[in-house]
Design goal:
Distance between the termini: 21 Å
Strand order of the largest sheet: 1-2-3-4
Number of domains: 1
Number of strands: 4
Strand content: 25-35%
Radius of gyration: 12 Å
């Protein structure tokens, strides 16, 4: 597996952000009760067990039964949702 995309995302975590709607969507989809959704996502992405795959313009991060979608160009967290037995 080519880890260069994973390394690129990890290296640029300081650029990670989302929109106000993104915050609401992520909290709702994951039933989160946290103040800082971006920090929560950043921690998940940094987890050594995170599976990070880039497909087209997005990274998909699978960790702890959730999938976080991040735009590969703007580092915007688009959404996150629970993974239901694939």
């Amino acid at each position: 597996m080519d880890d260069s995309n994973k390394i690129e995302l990890i290296f640029n975590l300081d650029k990670l952000h989302t929109t106000d709607l993104g915050i609401m969507r992520i909290k709702r989809n994951l039933s989160l009760d946290v103040n800082d959704v971006v920090s929560w996502c950043r921690e998940k992405i940094q987890n050594p067990n995170a599976l990070i795959v880039r497909t087209g313009k997005n990274w998909y991060v699978d960790i702890d039964n959730c999938e976080i979608t991040v735009n590969a160009y703007s580092y915007t967290i688009i959404t996150a949702h629970k993974i239901h037995n694939k």
